[in-house]
Design a protein that fits this description.
alpha+beta; 2 domains; two-stranded antiparallel ribbon; 4 strands; elongated; binds zinc ion
């Protein structure tokens, strides 16, 4: 319900011209960008991994205790997870 309200608001305010501008801004040459490398081994290949958070029945949207996966990336060579990949909670890293 909330999501559909936000989407409608965005659609009516922004219009299609702005949407086209956003698409043009994605044309960035990857060679111009800074490489991200592993803090430990300086490897540049990362693979997706998941952190899991438990959500209690009280907080859960469907009223049932469950687990929520958080997508994160780890170094393919040594398994290290860079600090900048770790999400913050209340200003502190969650790992
Ligand atoms: Zn590494």
């Amino acid at each position: 319900m909330l999501q559909s309200i936000q989407w409608l608001g965005w659609d009516s305010k922004m219009g299609k011209e702005i949407n086209m501008n956003n698409q043009q801004q994605i044309n960035i040459d990857p060679n111009d960008l800074e490489d991200v490398s592993c803090e430990k081994c300086e490897g540049q290949v990362f693979v997706p991994a998941f952190l899991f958070k438990k959500i209690s029945a009280v907080l859960s949207p469907n009223g049932k205790a469950s687990m929520i996966p958080l997508n994160i990336f780890k170094c393919d060579a040594c398994g290290h997870i860079n600090q900048e990949f770790i999400p913050n909670k209340d200003g502190e890293k969650i790992l």
